[in-house]
Amino acid sequence: MAQPTPSATLDPIDLDAARRRLATPDRLSEFFRPRSIALVGASDSSGWARFVVDSLRTAGFTGALRPVHPKRPTAFDLPTVPSLRALDEPVDLAYVFAPTHAVEGVLDDAAAAGVRNAVVLASGYGDGGGEEGRALERRLVEQAVARDITLLGPNCLGFVNAAGSVAPFGLGIVPPLRRGPVGIVLQSGALTSNVLAFARAHQVGISLLTSMGNEAVITTADVVEHLIADDDCEVIGLFLESVRDAPRFTALAAAALAAGKPIVALKVGRTEAGQRTALAHTGAVAGDDAVVDAAFRQYGVIRVGSLEELLVTAGLMGSGQAPRGRRMGVVTASGGACDIIADRSTDEGVEIVEFAPGTTDALRAVLPPFAAAQNPLDVTGVILADRGSAQAGLGDVALNAVVDDPGVDFVFHMLALPAAEPPDPSVIEQRVTAVAATSARSRIPVVNFTATCTDLSPYAQSLLDRHGLHALGGIEFGLTAIGHALRWHETRQHPPAVGEGRQQSHLHVPTRPGAGFADARATDGPWSEARGRELLAAAGVPLVPAELVTDADAAVAAAQRFGCPVALKVCSADIAHKSDIGGVALGASGADEVRAAFGRVLAAGRAATSAIDGVLVSPMRPPATELFVGVTVDPSFGPVLAVGLGGVFIEVLHDVALRLLPVDAGQVRRMLGELRGAAVLAGARGTRPADLDRVAEVVAQVAAAAAGLGPALQTLEINPLRVDGGDVEALDVLVVTGGM
User: Fold this and answer.
1) Which helix (H) or strand (E) holds 402?
2) How do residues 437-489 score in pLDDT, each as one tens digit?
3) Which domain covers residue 333, as residue numbers?
């Protein structure tokens, strides 16, 4: 068979397209389910090889295992062959232990032997080899493309496919390997064992777990795309040091949201020190963390702060018991737990509702006299200390009563699980059986949790598994996971605007570009305010009236037409911040004041630059609510809309909401609700309540105008956007383009 054309002459774009053909969902479905594996460079003295062999056994791999070594006649009690070329038939996957300098030769052997898939353990490529390492990694990609080999790594430990009972993985796996609905992708190899250990101890089943190494051929985005299509995966967990291809990532996040597969991501590098560490480790570009956070929220990616939070949240999302409504009923056997839950539920926006009268009556009939029939419910320690109460089903009756309450959307239910099988397991068996029966008949989710995030004993896990139950690890992680689940379901109800996949370009150009996409190419730097106003006006954005004048008489005439008092501002592309140089005069009334103001602002402008277009004259407006609206371009995610309250809110408190473009008015409306100062828009200090729908419509028009500038866009800013009820006007405009 003819070899594919070598790719040494391909430019980076063509090479990436060729690489992508090696990592399609169909290719990865084959890659992650090998039926036969060759261990290249394996020997009895190799710790890496020993780990892989043990991991395969733990996973229950029953396929063919072929060790390859040029000198050793056997490895792990199996006969070796000297190279892949000596195999009597191709294997599905080669796990390559060979040192860096020998990898290229192994891949040539693989191609000659008909082997299409490889995991490469060796390091020294782009992960720390400097320019030489980066060049070596590019050659590796070119070779993989030319030889049609799908490659995971280099600098990679491999993967664990629990659903497929195969784990070519270079660290030990403590049995048993728990199978389940969660697919996990890690941009860190060493953490995989920790993730597996926590998942096993907290009843979180894994479908696929893979470390990524340098992502030379298979990338994190490729695996996410595979998991979206994989029927064994219902939830996707990510540990990210960087988002390497932001437009593709957001497109995949939108696809996962539409498919009903939550993505739960731990993205590190929030601080400057964290970014330096991530960059040093991966050599990838990390976007500003506030933009990353906004992008994740917009596309339904659940961002978490720890591995524990990731796994507990993924466990809830894959349990089938994730809540969709915010009205919570609570059943515990601890007053202290009720207090903690009450505080944390407020943090997560979860409402602890009053029980209906029928629920209260049913509870009073069974609770001890000293117990309060209220939400959150403490059935008291009687259920734990008094065997008669436990056997009589006090907890079961209470749970059933709360489950049937018509005003409750889900029940947060505490389970006390033993650290080991008790001498007489009948009581706990009866209790768990009853909980399972209630959950099965319930119209709403019953979310079970343990009081703290302690490991579940093998007996407790077996007990839960036999009854089809899942328990979240602790109150803190449990309520955090519930908050994540609720926000994810709400995002699904309001998915990203049409076209937000942005696979082709991170800059969306609307069908009506308005005033100046073409001539924006000729501008490198700030625009004059008059020209910026033309752009916004063409996009339908309302502006305070203004007239550009070049002499004092024209200024007086404009002021008479508008009606005094008026504001005068020098207009020049060279002066972005006019007030800083004295180029603004406010409240001028009468011809003499207007003439004097005109002279002052014009002189201030001429002192700064000779390129003066004139002076803008505008009517003064009475005080009202002021917003900041701006669009800037993030190097990873592209154009980003920022909306915040003006004045101290934006300058000191940094109270701002962010979204990637494009956005629609509905998205903007939700942004306004996210502001800490959102109550100001409802009317404060004598201002009229804002018409939020009108505000959202105008801000969406501003965003469309910015996007219409295409790749020339650097910044478009309105500060302030004046809001007085339904009257919305842009007062000051700044546009900066260039760098195309």
Assistant:
1) helix 394-403
2) 999 999 999 999 999 999 999 999 999 999 999 999 999 999 999 999 999 99
3) 322-469
Rounded Cα distance between 303 and 294, Å, is 10
User: Does one domain contain both 443 and 387?
Assistant: yes
- Top pLDDT among 60 and 280 is at 60
Describe the crossing of helices 307-317 and 191-201 by its angle, rounded to 10 degrees.
50
Query: Is residue 237 situated within a structural domain?
Result: no
CA distance to 276, 336, 394, 442, 452, per residue, from 378 (Å): 48, 9, 11, 21, 17
Are 304 and 266 in contact, with CB atoms under 8 Å apart? yes
Are the C-beta atoms of 665 and 691 separated by less than 8 Å? no
Residues facing residue 302 across a β-bridge:
264
Residue closest to 259 by CA, chosen among 183, 368, 148, 360: 183
More confident site: 371 or 234: 234
Which pair of structure tokens corresponds to residue 622?
Answer: 């009475």
CATH of residue 714's domain is 3.30.470.20
Taking the C-alpha atoms of residue 628 and residue 638, their distance in angstroms, rounded to an integer, is 20
Q: How far apart are CA 42 and CA 52, in angstroms?
A: 10
Examine residue 567 and state whether it is found in any structural domain, yes or no.
yes
Q: Are 210 and 186 in contact (CB under 8 A)?
A: yes
Q: Residue 394 is part of a domain; what is its CATH number?
A: 3.40.50.261
Same domain as 170, residue 25:
yes
Contact between residue 238 and residue 304 where contact means Cβ atoms under 8 Å apart: no
